[in-house]
Structures are given as structure tokens and as C-alpha cells.
């Protein structure tokens, strides 16, 4: 369905995306995970034909994005990170406007508008101005517009930024449903790893404009199978403890965030005992300890030394 | 698609109360304030007019008038000595001569350039004001002064747009004359009542028989051509918001061509400007009785002005997209419109300041449209509005070509 081949995008002297390679099969949900500024939106914009790559080629449905812009645009639906809607128009007016832009007319337009309103659960509120909507409702309408022309490939750029858990859950379920019922191919970018983990069959992890890892979530987590992940919470800053832990051979990484430390240690190493000893020695009170299986967050930490939200 | 974009722009504007206030209410308020405040001046541009060309037509020589007056006195049975005294006094208080004397002193001060002629047909074409003293005027005024006869017919003052200063000169002269006459009677302490004033009113007619432009006419034209420019800034501003909020990119991904988007802004500019002008003109016509004389010509001027707004909206949109901000539009809305309005004569008639200013005003589409509107309001025919189309056409072409050059060709916006 989609092939991204050695794509690079340079803005003046800054390289936003460097030698990115991706492939997506028909009907897959593929996640693009990375912190802010990793190059996800630039990659999405190139796939959407909005910006041209400096180098490399992108093919969608067998067509070169560079050479068949019109065809590609009929094939894809884009849900931008921003609320790309007319705030002074009602939801219905927005949908009719963009529907006509997609060359829908008459009864077909009417049916498609009614359908997408139903999909995103806004039928009852369709006559209200967008500016009166909650953040979650705006996000849902933002998705509805991209679904009007029944795209084969849906590109969603951080569609759940800044909304309440209920709306987020609704959007995630909508995405799953679209994939299940319509066999829609979906590219989903986010810096919320739990969303990507929940939705996606395969994941590409980006950082500093490059793909640093790719695979199914199990394949990615397998990178950390030789490690245990322990999260400890102290009554004060964990910096001193982290320094002491880093000196030990069986501890591979320590990441500190305030009173919390995430410790990656070699499988079956006696880390708990060490942590308890060191906290006592440093006069620090241990508030909680959690031993957990590796998450995508841990994978990202392992690969970059940083968390996704840093 | 274009129609759909026009409908969208109209809906958006109708729901933007602050913009509606600027585009419709503000011009109406300013027409009311300025029109009322300067109601006495039929030409708000008169002040600071500089040196004006003027002419005085005295159809009858003084000695002919004196001879006629002598005949009258004889017919009244007046003794010859008294006749001689009255004739001497009459020669001393001849209104046309006194008036001419005053104008000549103004000429020495550099305010006017006066020609004194005896036939109305010889009035120079470029005369901004003409005072006509008909045959018999002197005799009528002497009869009224010395024989308590009826007040003579008023002096005919013909003016063009400089009426403010011409009317001021006329009024000042007759006020002074009447005051002196009243003072003279009081000084004589005679019991006879003070005679009626020589002249209290001036009959004004527009040169070439056009109607006089009132302050409401002037500011209806001035404010309309000024505030219509804000429609272009409104559209450019919405275009910037559409880029910032990704709506524009969404339109691109739905295969709306770049040119159609920009043309949509232009088309919306034309449509909204026409609606705006219709509202302003209708208000002025209904409330202040502003008459446009020819609705057809007014519509043609409004269309020319609307095309200007449309092309300007396209250019400002293109600049916003090129610069990726709306600073240029904000600058145009704050300073650009004011400068254009000033040069175009929306506040006062700057064409009287100098030939250069007059030329600049004529070259600007808003100035040219304003001149055309005033001409049509004054009853002029189509020939007076043709020059406007040169400047409007040139401006539109310039804006559209510049918009095409400035708008980012690649879709990396």
C-alpha cells in the first residue's frame, strides 16, 4: 500500500528527516512513535503530498506521490494534528464544504456526511458551531472530514492531543472499527506509547529525523528481553541513588525523573536488594517499588536514553 | 467550488461581529459625524485650498448704471442738486466695485487670482468660482439703499468643488457691507428705520449646471471607498488563519488547486465589497438623502471598486502565505488604508493642495473611484468616470500579477 524509500527532507540547513524507509501493507495499522520534533509530522506531510522530499521516493498504491499528486490525494485521508476546521461554521457546514471539495454532490454528499457524523458520534450536535465544541468533539469532527471520501489510506497525525480520556478512548475505538470494518490502512502518529501499543500492528520509532527501530510491538520489546525494568519512588530526589546504581555492573541504565527512577538491570540480577541497601545507606525513604515487563517507553529509553515526553 | 468558497466567506463574515462592525457600522457612523459636523461646507476640501482662479462678471459698466439711476431720480422728481449728491454716493457704494476691490486685495494676499469680465461667456474654463452681477443689479441695490425700494435679486455665485471658500468670501463681504450700512444709519441718529440688508443670501449654482456636493455626499463617497479596503484585509486575515490552522493544507489534500483558492479570495472580495457598498449607499440615501443621480453609473463604479478589493485581497493573501505571517496585512490595515484614504481624498479634498497630490489621488483606485462617485452624485455623465477605469484596471492587473508571483509556487506552505 505504501513504500517510503530513503526519504530525506531538508529545510535550508536543517535536516528534518533523514533517509527514512517504511513500508505498509493494505489493512495494517502502523504506528509512528517519537517525541516532539522527531520528524513524524514532516514524514506525514511528505506521504500526504503536501511537501516534496528533498531526496528519495514515496509510492502509495503503486503511484509515485511526487508524480501523481492528484491520484494520491483521492486515495488518502489526512487527519492533521491541528483542528483544521472553520470555527465559525457548524459541523454540518464544514462537512458539506469539504465534501464538495472532494467532489461529492447531491444525495451522495448527504449520505456521506450523515455516515461520518454517525461514525464519530456527532449526529445530534451537527448543527452547532465548531467553536462551541469541546476539544474532544473538535478532534472527532477533524477525523470525520478526513473520512468523507472513503480513503484507502488514513493518515492520523497525533489525533488525540489535548483531549479528555473519554474522547481519546472514543477516537481509538473509532480507528479500530474503521480498520476492522473497512479494512482501512492507517498510519497513526503519536507520542503516547500506550495508544500506539493498543492500536498498531507494527511500529516505527523515530528520533532526530531518523527511524531508530521498527517492528511489531513484540519484536521491539524483545530488544529488552534480557533486562528487568524496576521503577522506584523515593521521598526525595532520586539523583544520588541513580549515581550509586550506575556504578554497578548488573545495572545497564538508570533514568531519573524527580523522585522516580526507572532502572534497567540484567535479567535476574539482585537489583531489589541493592536498591534497598543503597536507600538505607543514603538515608532515603523508599515509597514504592514496581517490577514490570518492558514497555515501548522502555524501548525508546533504551534506544535514545530519553523518555518520549522529554 | 468557487461558489462554495464564496458562500463560506459570506457566512464567516456574517458571524464575525467585530468585522461587521468595522466594515458596515464604522463607515455609517463616520458619515453621520463628519457629514453633520461639516454640513455648512458644501466642499469639505475648501480649507487650505491655496490660490484659486476666480472671475467676476459685471455685465453693465458703472457709467451706464449711473445714467439709468439718474433717469430714475429725475422721474421721481428729485432736485438736480440732490440728484448729484445721491449719484456721488451711489458711485461710492456700488456693490460690484466694492466687491471687486475686496477680491483684488485677496489677490494681493495670494489667495485668489481674479479676472474681471463683462460677459459670462468669457469666464475661463478653470475658474473655481464665478460671481455674476447682472444688468440692473447696481440700480436695484441703489434703489433699495436710497429709495427704500425692494431688495434686489441676489448675486449669482457659480462654483465648482471649491464652494466652501467662495461661499465664505461672499458671505463675509455682504455681512460687512450690511453692518457698515447699519452703523452709518445709527450714527446719523435718524428715526428712519434701518433698511433691509442688501444681500443676505447667495444663490449658488454648480459650474456646468451640476448639483452642489453636500458634506453627506462627500463623506458617503469618502468613507465607502476607504472602508471597502478593510474587506480585503479581512479576507487576507482569514486566509492566514486557514494556513495556520491547517485548513489550507486540508483543502490541498482534497485536490483544491492553489489558483482556485486564491481566486476564491478574490471573488469573495468582489462579492463582499459589493454588498458593503450597497449597504453604505442605501443607508446614506435613505437617512441623509444622498442622491446618486444615475444608479447605473454608481453600480459600474461600485463594481470597479469591488474588483480593486478582490485583487487586493488576492495580493494580501499571497503575501501572508509568502511571509508565513499576517504582519503585512496588519500593517496595511493600520497604516496602508489610512494613507490610501488620505491620498484618495476620503478625509478632505487633498487634490487642492497641489497638482502632484491631485495626480496621485487620481491614480489611486480609491481616489479615482471617489472622484467618479462625486461626479455622478453631481449629475455628471459616463465620460467623467472613464478615467477611473484606467487606474482601477491597472491596479487590479498589478495586484493579480504580483499575487501570482508572490504566492508560494510549491505547496510547502
UniProtKB/TrEMBL annotation, chain A:
Keywords for the protein's UniProt record, in alphabetical order: ATP-binding, Nucleotide-binding, Transport
SUPFAM superfamilies reported for this sequence: P-loop containing nucleoside triphosphate hydrolases (SSF52540)
Domain ABC transporter span(s) in chain numbering: 2-233
One Pfam family cited in the UniProt record for this chain: DrrA1-3_C
Signal peptide (UniProt feature, chain positions): none
GO molecular function: ATP binding; ATP hydrolysis activity
Entries under InterPro entries matching the protein: AAA+_ATPase (IPR003593), ABC_transporter-like_ATP-bd (IPR003439), ABC_transporter-like_CS (IPR017871), DrrA1/2-like_C (IPR025302), P-loop_NTPase (IPR027417)
Name of the protein described by the UniProt record: ABC transporter ATP-binding protein
UniProtKB/TrEMBL annotation, chain B:
Membrane association type: Multi-pass membrane protein
Domain of life (superkingdom): Bacteria
Localization in the cell: Membrane
Pfam families according to UniProt: ABC2_membrane_3
Keyword Transmembrane helix applies: yes
Keyword Transmembrane helix belongs to the record: yes
Swiss-Prot/TrEMBL keywords: Membrane, Transmembrane, Transmembrane helix
Main location group: membrane
GO cellular component: membrane
Entry's transmembrane regions: 218-237, 258-283, 295-316, 328-348, 384-407
All residue ranges annotated as the ABC-2 type transporter transmembrane domain in the record: 20-404
GO MF entries: ABC-type transporter activity
Protein name according to UniProt: ABC transporter permease
Organism phylogeny: Bacteria, Bacillati, Bacillota, Bacilli, Bacillales
Amino acid at each position: 500500500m505504501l513504500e517510503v524509500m530513503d526519504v530525506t527532507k531538508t529545510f535550508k540547513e536543517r535536516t528534518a528527516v533523514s533517509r527514512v524507509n517504511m513500508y505498509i501493507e493494505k489493512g495494517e495499522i502502523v504506528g509512528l512513535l517519537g517525541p516532539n520534533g522527531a520528524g513524524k509530522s514532516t514524514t506525514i506531510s511528505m506521504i500526504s503530498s503536501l511537501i516534496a522530499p528533498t531526496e528519495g521516493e514515496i509510492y502509495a498504491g503503486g503511484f509515485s506521490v511526487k508524480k501523481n499528486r492528484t491520484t494520491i490525494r483521492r486515495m488518502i485521508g489526512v487527519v492533521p494534528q491541528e483542528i483544521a476546521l472553520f470555527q465559525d461554521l457548524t459541523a454540518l457546514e464544514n462537512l458539506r464544504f469539504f465534501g464538495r471539495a472532494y467532489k461529492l454532490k447531491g444525495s451522495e454528499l448527504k449520505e456521506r456526511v450523515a455516515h461520518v457524523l454517525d461514525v464519530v458520534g456527532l449526529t445530534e450536535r451537527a448543527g452547532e458551531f465548531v467553536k462551541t465544541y469541546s476539544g474532544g468533539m473538535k478532534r472527532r469532527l477533524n477525523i470525520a472530514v478526513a473520512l468523507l471520501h472513503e480513503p484507502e489510506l488514513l493518515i492520523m497525525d497525533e489525533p488525540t492531543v489535548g483531549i479528555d480520556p473519554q474522547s481519546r478512548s472514543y477516537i481509538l475505538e473509532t480507528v479500530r472499527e474503521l480498520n476492522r470494518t473497512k479494512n482501512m490502512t492507517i498510519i497513526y502518529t503519536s507520542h503516547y506509547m500506550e495508544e500506539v501499543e493498543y492500536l498498531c500492528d507494527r511500529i516505527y520509532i523515530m528520533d532526530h529525523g531518523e527511524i531508530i527501530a521498527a517492528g511489531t510491538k513484540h519484536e521491539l520489546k524483545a530488544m529488552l528481553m534480557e533486562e528487568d525494568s524496576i521503577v522506584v519512588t523515593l521521598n526525595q530526589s532520586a539523583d544520588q541513588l541513580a549515581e550509586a546504581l550506575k556504578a554497578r555492573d548488573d545495572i545497564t541504565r538508570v533514568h531519573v525523573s524527580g523522585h522516580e527512577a526507572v532502572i534497567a538491570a540484567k535479567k535476574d540480577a539482585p537489583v531489589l536488594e541493592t536498591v534497598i541497601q543503597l536507600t538505607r545507606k543514603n538515608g532515603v525513604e523508599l515509597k514504592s517499588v514496581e517490577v514490570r515487563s518492558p514497555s515501548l517507553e522502555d524501548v525508546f529509553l533504551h534506544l535514545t536514553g530519553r523518555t518520549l515526553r522529554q | 467550488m468557487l461558489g462554495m468558497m464564496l458562500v463560506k466567506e459570506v457566512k464567516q463574515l456574517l458571524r464575525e461581529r467585530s468585522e461587521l462592525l468595522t466594515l458596515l457600522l464604522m463607515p455609517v457612523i463616520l458619515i453621520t459625524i463628519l457629514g453633520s459636523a461639516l454640513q455648512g461646507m458644501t466642499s469639505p476640501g475648501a480649507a487650505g485650498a491655496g490660490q484659486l482662479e476666480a472671475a467676476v462678471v459685471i455685465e453693465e459698466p458703472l457709467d451706464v448704471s449711473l445714467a439709468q439711476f439718474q433717469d430714475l431720480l429725475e422721474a421721481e422728481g428729485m432736485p438736480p442738486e440732490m440728484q448729484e449728491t445721491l449719484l456721488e454716493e451711489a458711485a461710492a457704494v456700488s456693490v460690484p466695485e466694492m466687491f471687486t476691490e475686496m477680491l483684488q486685495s485677496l489677490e494681493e494676499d495670494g489667495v485668489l487670482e481674479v479676472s474681471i469680465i463683462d460677459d459670462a461667456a468669457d469666464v475661463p474654463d478653470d475658474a473655481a468660482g464665478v460671481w455674476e452681477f447682472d444688468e440692473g443689479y447696481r440700480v436695484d441695490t441703489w434703489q433699495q439703499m436710497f429709495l427704500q425700494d425692494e431688495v434686489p435679486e441676489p448675486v449669482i455665485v457659480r462654483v465648482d468643488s471649491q464652494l466652501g471658500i467662495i461661499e465664505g468670501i461672499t458671505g463675509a463681504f455682504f455681512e460687512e457691507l450690511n453692518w457698515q450700512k447699519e452703523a452709518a444709519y445709527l450714527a446719523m441718529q435718524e428715526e428712519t428705520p434701518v433698511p433691509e440688508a442688501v444681500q443676505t443670501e447667495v444663490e449658488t449654482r454648480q459650474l456646468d449646471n451640476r448639483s452642489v456636493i453636500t458634506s453627506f455626499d462627500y463623506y458617503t463617497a469618502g468613507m465607502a471607498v476607504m472602508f471597502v479596503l478593510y474587506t480585503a484585509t479581512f479576507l487576507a486575515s482569514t486566509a492566514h488563519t486557514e494556513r495556520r490552522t491547517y485548513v489550507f493544507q486540508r483543502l490541498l489534500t482534497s485536490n483544491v488547486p492553489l489558483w482556485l483558492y486564491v481566486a476564491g479570495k478574490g471573488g469573495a472580495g468582489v462579492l463582499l465589497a459589493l454588498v458593503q457598498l450597497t449597504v453604505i449607499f442605501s443607508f446614506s440615501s435613505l437617512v441623509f438623502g444622498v442622491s446618486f443621480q444615475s444608479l447605473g453609473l454608481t453600480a459600474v463604479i461600485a463594481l470597479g471598486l469591488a474588483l480593486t478589493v478582490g485583487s487586493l485581497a488576492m495580493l494580501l493573501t499571497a503575501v501572508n502565505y509568502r511571509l508565513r505571517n499576517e504582519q503585512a496585512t496588519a500593517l496595511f490595515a493600520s497604516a496602508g488604508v489610512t494613507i490610501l484614504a488620505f491620498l484618495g481624498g476620503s478625509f478632505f479634498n487633498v487634490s487642492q493642495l497641489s497638482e502632484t497630490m491631485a495626480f496621485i489621488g487620481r491614480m489611486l483606485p480609491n481616489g479615482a473611484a471617489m472622484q467618479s462617485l462625486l461626479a455622478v452624485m453631481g449629475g455628471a455623465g459616463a465620460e467623467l468616470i472613464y478615467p477611473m477605469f484606467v487606474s482601477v484596471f491597472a491596479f487590479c492587473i498589478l495586484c493579480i500579477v504580483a499575487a501570482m508571483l508572490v504566492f508560494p509556487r510549491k505547496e510547502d506552505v
